[in-house]
Amino acid sequence: MKKILSLMIILLLILGTAGCTKASNKGVSTPNPEQKFITIATGDTSGPYFTIGEALAKVYKKKLHYKTAIQSTDGSVENIKLLENHKADLAFVMSDAASSVLNELGKLKDGSTQGFKAMAGLYPNYVQIVTLSANKIKSVSDLKGKRVGVGAPNSGVEANARIILNEQGITYNDIKPEYLSYEEAIEQLKSKKIDAAFVTSGLPNNAVLKLQSSKEVMIVPIKSSDINHLTKQFPFFEKSEIPAGVYQNKHPIPTVAIRNILLVRSDLSKNQVYKMTKIFFENLDVLQMAHQAANSINRIDAGKGLVVPLHPGAKKYFEELYDK
């Protein structure tokens, strides 16, 4: 009887040890596996973010055999939140929004770090203050007292609209701000519910082109003195112009531009982000066919001068590129 009891105890110990081993193995940290489902946060469906993001999703599906999803959003600020909350894996963002988030994290004392890194610098977004010729708005100062579409809530458009208005001493108390997406703003401009709208995007913006087909569109210029001050005060702004002919304009229109960045979740593996970066640039022609804004993406410069540090996987790609 004692022998049987002893054998039972030994057997229970063996089973218990095996169970503990399995449980402990679950807690062992292993390198991040390759994620096969990728969500790309873009922007308004009428803007370049969405169009280029849609083309990129197809590239990743074909070349890397990923399952992909495109998420239309209100833009940069929302996209960063989606990355940090693991609700997106890749996101199109304007440099000013990314810079602002990094600055805020730098002020925190709890050791917080950003949940995103840069994969590549992209094309510039141009500040386009859109109105109708009949509205007789010829300068930023003329927006005072007007109904102005300032961009969707949580968007990079809205963030830089505040900055540009402030350059003329204009606050939201001096205008009637309307928080609208590209399409909503252009539709309300067409129906005369607003007088002007900030549309910060790559060129051309499809919603503006659509408006131009039925109305006489005017893009409000930014004064050269304001441009010089803005670029000195805010390093993410670049002196730029909207070329002649983009919106049937006879002459270039002075404005500022903000570089776009493709961000990726920090915790994606080095190997996976390396592959994603490599495939992105090997298929750049596909993205350029999707939207002409992508023609301004320069592979050589894409890893330089970014406001967000490169992900180790992207850094590896650019190091190989520059060593060639």
TrEMBL record:
This is C4-dicarboxylate ABC transporter substrate-binding protein. Keywords: Signal. InterPro entries: TRAP_TAXI (IPR011852). SUPFAM superfamilies: Periplasmic binding protein-like II. Residues 1-23 form the signal peptide. The keyword Signal applies. It comes from Heyndrickxia shackletonii. Coiled coil: none annotated. Pfam families: NMT1_3. Gene3D superfamilies: Periplasmic binding protein-like II (3.40.190.10).
